[in-house]
Amino acid sequence: MDCKNGSDVTEFILSGFSGQWELQIFIFMAFSLIYGATVVGNILVILTVTLSSTLHSPMYFLLGNLSFLDMCLSTATTPKIIKDLLTEHKTISVWGCMAQMFFIHYFGGAEMTLLIVMAFDRYTAICKPLHYRTIMSQRLLSGFVILSWTVGFIHTMSQMVLIVNLPFCCYNVVDSIFCDLPLVIRLACVETYTLELFVIADSGLLSFVSFIMLLISYTVILVTVQQRSSGGISKALSTLSAHIIVVLVAFGPCIFIYVWPFSSFASNKILAVFYTVITPLLNPIIYTLRNQKMQGAMRKLLFRHVTSMWTS
Question: What is the pTM of this model?
Answer without folding.
Answer: 0.86
